[in-house]
Specification:
Shape: globular
Structural class: mainly beta
Order of helices and strands: HEEEEEEEEEH
Helix content: 10-25%
Strand order of the largest sheet: 3-2-7-8-9-1-4
Distance between the termini: 60 Å
């Protein structure tokens, strides 16, 4: 029995999985709470294949207990193909006051934060968003992003007299 073809196929499958894996992978259990964010086809700042991650910077991160851990959490993600993209984000549930657990997810009233991963560059960008519907907080009845501007992660935002004495922006 020749096992070399088996190992060749296994290697090919592992390689394909690595090449086509997504940068933003949501790893949350369904809580029954969700928020739809629509990314309009009018967006010009993205290319097909760019990944969009929806984050809450002050989300509940613990699951099935009442430890009340708060932090940054990826709550929704999708891949841009040039047409309207609908991303559903997972919301938290806090039943601790009733003897139940907390479930991880966004917290209503917190800001929606979007990051973009450009696979062709291997770079994750912060963004500035233009909202055509909603206010950009979790809990909006409807929210739609009409434009995304990428923020250069290497840009210096504090190049002023205070840092100039130390060589300016690094």
């Amino acid at each position: 029995m020749n096992i070399k073809p088996f190992f060749n196929q296994l290697f090919f499958l592992v390689l394909c999985n690595f090449i086509f894996s997504q940068h933003f992978v949501v790893d949350l259990e369904d809580t029954g709470e969700s928020q739809l964010t629509i990314f309009a086809d009018s967006i010009t700042g993205l290319n097909a294949g760019d990944e969009i991650g929806v984050f809450d910077l002050d989300a509940i991160t613990n699951y099935n207990d009442c430890s009340n851990q708060i932090g940054e959490l990826l709550v929704g993600a999708g891949v841009w193909d040039g047409s309207q993209l609908n991303i559903v984000s997972t919301g938290s549930v806090d039943l601790c006051a009733f003897g139940g657990p907390q479930l991880a997810g966004f917290v209503e009233g917190n800001d929606v934060v979007v990051k973009v991963y450009k696979a062709d560059e291997g770079v994750e960008y912060d963004t500035e968003l233009t909202w055509s519907a909603g206010t950009g907080v979790f809990g909006d009845v409807i929210q739609q992003v009409s434009e995304i501007s990428l923020v250069d992660p290497n840009a210096c935002s504090d190049d002023n007299d205070a840092v100039a004495a130390f060589g300016g922006c690094a």
